[in-house]
Fold this sequence. Notes:
The structure is a single chain. By secondary structure, the chain is of the alpha/beta class. It has two domains: 184 residues, Alpha-Beta Complex (Quinone Oxidoreductase, Chain A, domain 1), CATH 3.90.180.10; 138 residues, Rossmann fold (3-Layer(aba) Sandwich). The chain has twelve helices and 18 strands. The strands form three sheets. Strands 3, 5, 6, 9, 10, 17 and 18 form a seven-stranded mixed beta sheet that branches. The protein has a six-stranded parallel beta sheet with strand order 13-12-11-14-15-16, sandwiched between helices. Strands 4-1-2-7-8 form a five-stranded antiparallel beta sheet, with no helix packed on it. A hairpin with a 5-residue loop joins β1 and β2. The longest helix is centred in the middle third of the chain and has 13 residues. The model has no long low-confidence stretch (mean pLDDT 95). The structure holds zinc ion (2 copies). The site of one zinc ion has 5 residues, from loops.
Amino acid sequence: MKIQAAIARAGSIVDIETCDLDRPGPDEALVRLEACGICHTDLLSLGGQLGTPLPAVLGHEGVGRIEALGAEGEGFTVGDRVLMSFAACGHCPRCDGGAPAYCDAALPLNFLGRRPAGTGPMSLGGTAITSQYFGQSSFATHTVAGLRNMIRLPEDLPAELMAPLACGVQTGMSAVIKLLGAGEGRSIAVFGCGTVGLAAVMAAVIAGYERIVAVDLREDRIAIAREIGATEVVSGDTQAIENQLRAMAPVDCALDSTGSTAVIESAFARLRRCGQLLCLGVSPGGREFGIDPRELVFTGRSIRGSVEGDSDPAAFVPQMIDYFRAGWMPLHKIVKTYPFAEINRAMADLRSGETVKPVLLMD
Ligand SMILES: [Zn+2]
Ligand SMILES: [Zn+2]
């Protein structure tokens, strides 16, 4: 069938063009998209920094409705509304162990946008293009995606607020709830108040952290952090932030969503003894940071990275929906919608920091 899709070629903009879309394979579904969030990861892939073969259709926070099912489509019916999260093979040791974010096939299935068998389902002028980005390639009016990364979504939930649960919000929330744990009597500092960082602030409120420190260069983001529950804020230019951090009482946990080595070093320095630093920011790669190993040993502090906050979307997305229904996730404060036709403006607003989480509406 003919569809409209945003074609990414190397650079900073995409072109919406007419493509051909194949019928779904046995374990896939044809999905008509309602909405898709835009993540910094999409921008890095568009810029050629993550190895995604171009031309490609990006987009990995899709919400839509199943219009056709492959032969093995058990558990789903035509007409189901779904959220599409990251892809995993479902049968390697990591997938079996409940850690699909570390699937053995995570790279080809997500960043390289390859179908488990063969080429992508979209083609341009008879040539297949990368069209299974994160198992979905959702910057399009329709897509064919794997059933494994679909989670059924109740009818009453707004598409534009649910889309970010697929990646950005899931990452920040799961990092706090699943990895850092209960917050009673504890303190956390969140470095970088984009979608991941602000979702982490929401999660820290839910988990009951006593002190929640939000750090960002932008005053508008700090204002949102304060509105959604940060108890202390640190902002200003780089030097002003560093001075405030030095004067601040140390924290039990810190979370970096920037991927900046200077920020990671600074976050580590703010940890108290036995404190934990979690690194969540996807960076272009090839950077290094310095930490004195003696400091690491004598203070018992730890530092670790995490993809998608170690989430297992099949279990964690329904948990986030419960938090949303309880009124604990003020996602409307971070989401701004754009018509699909304005995808380039939406990406520019994400790049400049003007919008925290742009979400495209396809209808
Ligand atoms: Zn796997
Ligand atoms: Zn993402």
